[in-house]
Amino acid sequence: MKWIALIWLISFLQSCIYQFDGCHYYFDRATMLFIYSNSLCAEIVSIYCEFYVNLAFVIFVVLLDVLTFFKLKKMSKPTHGLEQISSRRRSQEVRYFIQ
Predict the structure, then answer these.
(1) CA torsion 75→85→62→66, rounded to 10°?
(2) Total domains, the chain
(3) Whether the predicted model's global pTM rises above the 0.70 cut
(4) How many CB atoms lie within 10 A of CB 45?
């Protein structure tokens, strides 16, 4: 329940930023893009609240993929004993990783 409340709080705080005068964006039909207004507040929001937050998520996902790749590589080393089951499981995990 605490996680749900935390997610709601973060979402509410993130949406409150756009209520200040000049901190909003609009959809331009000619360019088919969302464009921020020409103010300092909108520039700060577009850089820090949009770009850097999304960049952090992308970096996190890339790091997670790299760690998964190295773990699969480490697990693919042959083990003694259950070779057939291990190779079948290994190929299935590699397919999941590629997916």
Answers:
(1) 20
(2) 1
(3) no
(4) 22
